[in-house]
């Protein structure tokens, strides 16, 4: 059985024979592709010429590539509100016609570009997201960068019992051996305590009420010695904190301590 095929192009037959006339030079590239090839089946090249068809199917335009970063993406609450965005746009198929970074329009050269943009966040608590976009007039791409201000959790040992006679001061908390920026209280510790000292933990009140596991066993011998108290961190910001101290002092380091 003869298979009829569409001819992309066939020059006109100018031979002198008595056969049929000129060949079919028409080409319809404005129809879905029928070849069962993943990624091609059903695609309409929307082409008027063979060259357009090849370009549209095998070399479709690609949007410019954008990249955006920010200095110090994780910060302690109260830390500097100043930021520097570093942006980059890489040209792909077409000349770049527009670039906007953090709401500020840049003058495009048409080719790949890079630069920085400075600013200040409206506060020093919470999460802030900055964005950029680049376009070639038809296709565009976006990028974002985020800064998160987080509270600090503290842990370590103290010779104070947290009573009214021996209260835990902000300076005592700031002087603890361990601390890190955190979003919750859940943490495991190894070889903590010893030397005839109490265990001390301080974290934001909204972290909730903890439970403790020491060397694999639940331990309820802890007292909250500061409840929803104002604590001024090293950045000068006030954080509402709870402070917990073990009821017992430990002469030897504990192999494992878990806060749940």
UniProtKB/TrEMBL annotation:
**Location of region: Disordered:** 1-40
Ranges of biased composition (kind: Gly residues): 13-24
List where Polar residues composition bias occurs: 27-37
Report the protein name in the record: Uncharacterized protein
Species for this entry: Mucilaginibacter terrenus
From the broadest rank down, the organism's phylogenetic lineage runs: Bacteria, Pseudomonadati, Bacteroidota, Sphingobacteriia, Sphingobacteriales
């Amino acid at each position: 059985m003869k298979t009829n095929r569409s001819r992309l192009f066939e020059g006109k037959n100018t031979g002198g024979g008595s056969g049929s006339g000129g060949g079919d030079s028409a080409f319809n590239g404005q129809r879905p592709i029928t070849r069962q090839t993943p990624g091609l089946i059903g695609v309409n090249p929307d082409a008027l010429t063979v060259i357009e068809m090849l370009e549209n199917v095998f070399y479709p335009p690609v949007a410019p590539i954008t990249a955006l970063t920010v200095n110090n993406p994780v910060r302690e609450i109260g830390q500097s509100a100043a930021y520097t965005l570093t942006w980059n746009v890489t040209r792909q198929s077409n000349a770049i016609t527009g670039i906007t970074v953090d709401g500020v329009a840049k003058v495009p050269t048409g080719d790949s570009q890079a630069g920085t943009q400075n600013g200040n966040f409206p506060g020093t608590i919470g999460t802030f997201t900055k964005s950029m976009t680049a376009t070639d007039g038809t296709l565009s791409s976006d990028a974002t960068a985020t800064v998160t201000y987080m509270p600090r959790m503290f842990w370590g040992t103290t010779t104070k019992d947290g009573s009214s006679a021996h209260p835990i001061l902000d300076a005592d908390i700031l002087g603890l051996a361990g601390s890190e920026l955190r979003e919750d209280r859940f943490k495991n510790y190894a070889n903590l305590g010893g030397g005839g000292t109490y265990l001390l933990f301080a974290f934001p009140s909204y972290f909730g009420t903890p439970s403790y596991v020491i060397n694999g066993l639940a331990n309820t011998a802890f007292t909250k010695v500061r409840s929803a108290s104002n604590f001024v961190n090293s950045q000068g910001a006030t954080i509402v904190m709870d402070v917990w101290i073990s009821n017992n002092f430990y002469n030897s380091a504990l192999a494992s301590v878990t806060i749940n």
